[in-house]
Amino acid sequence: MTDQTSEMEVFGALQDKEPSKPPRSQWRDVWDQFRKHKGALFGGGFLLFITLGVLFGPYLWDLAPTKLDIRNKDWRPVYTLLWDSDVKAGWAHPFGTDQLGRDILSQMIHGGRVSMAVGWAAMVLSLLIGTAVGVAAGYFKRADFILMRLTDLVLSLPILPLVLLAVTLFRQPLTKFFGSPESGMFVLIVSVIALTSWMQTARIVRGDILALKEREFILAARSIGTTDGKIIRRHLLPNVISPIMVSATLGLATAIITESALSFLGVGFPSDFPTWGKLLSDAVNRMQEFPERVLLPGFLISMTVLSVNYLGDGLRDALDPRIRGR
Amino acid sequence: MLNFTIRRLILSIPTLLFISLVIFMLLQLAPGDPMAQVPLTVPPEVKQKMREALGLGAPIHVQYFKWLYQFFVVEPSVFIDFLTNKSFLFGWLPDTHFSMTIDSVTGELVQKQRVISWQTRSPVMDIVMQRMPQTLWVVGLSYVVGILIAIPIGIYSAYRHYSLFDQAGTFVTMVGFSIPPFFTGPLLIVIFSVSLGWLPSIYDTTLIVDSWATFKIQLMQMIMPVMVLALQTTAQISRYMRSAMLDNLNQDYVRTARAKGLKESVVIMVHVLRNSMIPVVTVIALGMPAIFGGAIITENVFKVNGIGQLLLTALFANDLPMVMTLTFIFAILIVLFNLIADILYGVLDPRIRYD
Q1: Helix (H) or strand (E) run with residue B350 in it
Q2: Residue ranges per structural domain of chain B
Q3: Residue A309 to residue B187, Cβ atoms within 8 A
Q4: Are residues A156 and B335, on separate chains, in Cβ contact within 8 Å?
Q5: Domain span at residue A270?
Q6: Mean pLDDT by 10 residues, chain A (326 residues)
Q7: Full-model pTM
């Protein structure tokens, strides 16, 4: 015993004087890198603000979006009072009212609920499909050929025409099936967007899984008898989480834009049901007199999508360990 | 390379057949009735006859094969006949009559049954040919303008990485990605047509350009749709260009080129640019089908009567043959340009061999 302690003292000079830094978790590193990206931080903040706004907005501003008040129609937003004190405007309707006297702020909050709900639901669904297809194709050799040919096929479909086609064709049957036009349209739009946007996720996930499954830790897991399902869940999926998150942000952005585009072309939700795209397209006819009715929803759509895109950009940098060190 | 091309061409035939089947089945599920517009005074048995005249009584597979025959045999033969009989380029060839057939009842020479639009009762391809020039002019020009703006931006922002220009360029790209055309379109109309009154907000297709004045009007009415579409193209392509340049700028061959004393302009514009163009060219090729497909939203905003607007009106009017044919033409173009992009990749990059 004594021999050993003396030996330790000899090598003591080689030890570090300072205590090494406490171990840092991976997500801490990711957060530190993410914080450096100003645009991403701003994007995440704005997205959070919009999400909370549309979630809790109706409780703060409890005017119903469909409430008609024909005497107070065509109010201008309150800021027009700054340069023109004669206009009809006031704090009762901060963003004004439309041609039927419906409050625009309330319409935008409720419209945002629908747009965000469609965006999130379509994004989650398309991620689920894409990840399932990608994992199956990457992990099981037999499924690879068929699934990837299927992905190529769907990729070569003309997407917007087909989405338009599906929405116009199945509007009535689904409305009948679900009882109300809103829920029928919601299911239809979400599933149509998801079914036409899962391919990129599937391709990326498959590529990563193909590379990962040749690594030693998978071999080790297999050699101690781990089942396929467990390897996928415990070892493979946590390793592909970062490309999935990046494509999630892209998916959210495209889903919001596609929904608004459908509403704009007049094939979206029913006419008394506000969404951002619908508000915009309804306002286009009278945009000479009331440009703010086009600008406000358009601004909201663009800012939401812009912040989601910046968030995705920041996440891509933060989750990439090669960039993170720098 | 030839081997690869031929293999891919053959492989694309089942792909296209499958796509056409998918579209056809989707349309079969459609609840709409093409007879819905016929007045109620028409008795039901007459309506039934009209339905059969449109070929709706036949079983689904018969309808599908008839459509395939019309699209792949009759329409090309009509086109060949047009080329040899009337066109300027091939008019000297002996006149052909591939699309003609002898009517079994009257014994006269009549044209074979073509794909007929239910909405206008005229051949679908004739309408497509009428609409094509507007789409090609507006969307095609916007694509060219977008590329011409995007490539210098991409080169310079990669060269001055993290500079103010790069930051601004990245921001503009992000904005171009994020602002949908159904917002930029009305926004431009509000600014330039309503407030300033400089540009017309509606695209006049009947305008015939035969003098300097009409040319100016044509130019004025094209500015806004072209700019809306070019913003999107610029955003996409400058992003690819920038990242491709960044990948190449740190390569060893660039250091070698600089070390042997080449001018900086030669290093960037010859060595790096040529290598960076490889992925960009394929991206440009992949975007080409969208030109022919038209821009459904932008054409709708500016009232350009191109292909995209044709598809939209056909959809609303339940004109199934038109929708089917248009969607399938888009699918052919997508498959074709995918193939072209793959081949270009192999041709431009000697490191890639498909054999």
Answers
A1: none
A2: 35-117, 124-348
A3: no
A4: yes
A5: 114-319
A6: 53 64 76 80 88 83 72 72 71 72 80 88 93 90 85 80 79 76 82 88 89 88 90 88 85 87 82 81 78 84 89 81 60
A7: 0.81
